[in-house]
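name: query_chain
kind: protein
chains: 1
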Amino acid sequence: MIIDDYLKQYPKVAVAFSGGVDSSFLLCAARAAGCEVRAFFIKTQFQPLFELNDAKRLADSVGVPLTVGSLDILCNRKVTDNPPDRCYHCKSSILLKLMGLAGSFGFDVLCDGSNADDDESDRPGMRALREFGVLSPLRECGLTKADIRVLSKQAGLFTHDKPSYACLATRIPTGTEITAELLEKTEHAERILFDMGFSDFRVRLIPPDTANLQISAGQWDMAAARRAEIQTALRRYYDKVVLDLETR
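structure:
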């Protein structure tokens, strides 16, 4: 089904909004389909500030009102203990907050930006979407990430070439307790690399205190050239810094 036809079935929709490629296009598509639409962003300690800033900028550019709620996700031991299904418990907490917030504005249909490439077997959080009755229009219409990037560019969205970004908690290995300190230093480290000009990368923790840099192969030469600068900057937060040559 064409996304426009799908969305026209729901004249009033709330969008679980992250400011990323997928939910940004969904927001734009809902607006174009003539829906009464409102974006809802739930800020937790797992998202860096730039994600919220991007969300505000995108919502403003497409003329959709944005409501920002907050959630102290570190109060949830099922999340901070960091079990294999952490994402399920985190997503459930966020959706509970989202549903309540959307309901207070009179919205009873909630959509998210999952796409056709998302594999439910590899994403525990998608089980929460199903349990809460969240609609995934992009996925149900068969739109892949590549499709969404093309359509986003055609729509003039600045997010069309934005690198995919998983939450900060994914940088901490399963079984290692998630703390505010670990999240904050991860955000600082990734901001340093971003400001240096790196893109599409991760700074993952190897316990107890090693920063494992996963940088795209096309930027390894830049990493080598700026090796001393990177080490000096990141050693403020980590005891050791290494470059991962096996991934990305």
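note: The chain has a mean pLDDT of 95.
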